[in-house]
Amino acid sequence: MKFFLDTANTEEIRRGVELGLVDGVTTNPSLIAKEGRDLEELALEICELVDGPVNLEVVSTDAVDMIHEARYLAGLHKNVYVKLPMIREGLKALHVVAQEGISVNVTLIFSPGQALLAAKNGAAIVSPFIGRLDDISQEGMGLISEILLMYENYDFGTEVLVASVRNPVHVVEAAKMGAEIATLPAKVLEQLMKHPLTDIGLEKFLADWNKRKTPA
Question: N- or C-end of the chain: fewer Cβ atoms within 10 A?
């Protein structure tokens, strides 16, 4: 499974890269706006930090403008994947830019049917948002299972990126199902590393070591 960091904060990305666990980055307009920096400058800095896909999202809502924006974003760096929203205009834009060789991540997926349309139209990645489904009392991980099962029947070549991840359980369940990618907030990546018994065990080992008698 590939791990992407879901952030536009370069310090969070740098810390993740140091661990050797970051295969890519996902951003969205909210995350970019939070940093208060020029989009192009920030995007290029992230692309220098990460040797893998850097997902940048369009903010247009009509196909013509999405196509122009997608071409601009893709032209910033070879690692850029363009995120298009799962709406009618997004599908129209996807049909054009995917044929031009632009790698597209179709975002805001909430149903198997949406994932099917995106894959059929050439999406490199689809992003089902599991946490937001959980928030409205639907089983987010069930959507991942359905999409993966559906994709097994066809040679789409579309990867499933598990988005809106809220906790380590989401990541582990997605890995058990065989999802290709999970995009994680930095906090969840940290949580995956930790277990109280690890801390207790290490503390005991070190305490015993420090109590040892030094040979005369």
Answer: C
- Total count of domains within the chain: 1
User: How far apart, in whole angstroms, are the C-alpha atoms of residue 66 and residue 45?
Assistant: 23
216 occurs within a structural domain: no
Q: Please indicate, yes or no, if residue 7 is contained in any of the structural domains.
A: yes
Query: What is the residue range of 6's domain?
Result: 2-211
Q: Decide: 25 and 7 in contact? Cβ < 8 Å.
A: yes
Closest by Cα among 118, 170, 168, 124 to 144: 170
Residue 61 in this model has a pLDDT that exceeds 80: yes
For residue 199, what are the CA distances in angstroms to 19, 163, 169, 192, 208? 19, 29, 20, 14, 14
130-145 pLDDT, tens digit each: 999 999 999 999 999 9
The residues assigned a catalytic role are 83
Structure letter (DSSP) for residue 82: E
